[in-house]
């Protein structure tokens, strides 16, 4: 069985508010997306499909990377992932039961060892799983006025991260079903859960942040530097 990767990179980065989409901002002298792809290419994935916005003017400035293809992005992240899976399914060597790892372009700090641990751990599960972090803080539910209505136990509560690893055809069918039903899914696991399955959570190093706000850039640079030392 082969492993493939999909990297949704078609977002506009509204919360970052930078001149170019955040995945192309430079981090330690390299675009964020390039860091991300180089991490995935250090594992034994056969190839990576990157979803890009139609109006993307920055991709062509990245160096040519081996085993990397592109697909058109979509309106939502889940649409971008679906398009990349469609591209993979046209490859003659891709089998429906192959594993696919979906990883956000905006998570360049993921550790190669964590990706490898996910691949090894999830291989023992029929459906798939995802990197995740146990919640650290005390959790509150609030009303619309931001007043606390409830303290939610953090036991068994996790942050869902990426990569998320599933069987290729199953993930494609799950995302297509969610799209047809108009059900908004914000990660792959949610689409799989809607099919009645229970993905396994695999602990990630907390380095694996999603670069979202401007403050995250300094933190990401620090994490990458620490990894290189
Ligand atoms: N993404 C995508 N297609 C979309 C929306 C998002 O491929 N239609 C990608 C982003 O490029 C990013 C990942 O999904 O790598 C996670 O999304 P997020 O962090 O929300 O990025 P943006 O949507 O670009 O940021 P924002 O929500 O602040 O606009
Ligand atoms: Mg977004």
Automatic annotation (TrEMBL):
E.C. code: 2.7.7.60
GO biological process, one term: isopentenyl diphosphate biosynthetic process, methylerythritol 4-phosphate pathway
Annotated site residues (Positions MEP for the nucleophilic attack) in this chain: 154, 210
Presence of the UniProt keyword Transferase in the record: yes
This protein's UniProt keywords: Isoprene biosynthesis, Nucleotidyltransferase, Transferase
GO MF annotation list: 2-C-methyl-D-erythritol 4-phosphate cytidylyltransferase activity
Domain of life where this protein originates: Bacteria
Family: Belongs to the IspD/TarI cytidylyltransferase family. IspD subfamily.
NCBIfam families: ispD
PANTHER family xref list: 2-C-METHYL-D-ERYTHRITOL 4-PHOSPHATE CYTIDYLYLTRANSFERASE, CHLOROPLASTIC
Record-given protein name: 2-C-methyl-D-erythritol 4-phosphate cytidylyltransferase
Gene name, Swiss-Prot/TrEMBL: ispD
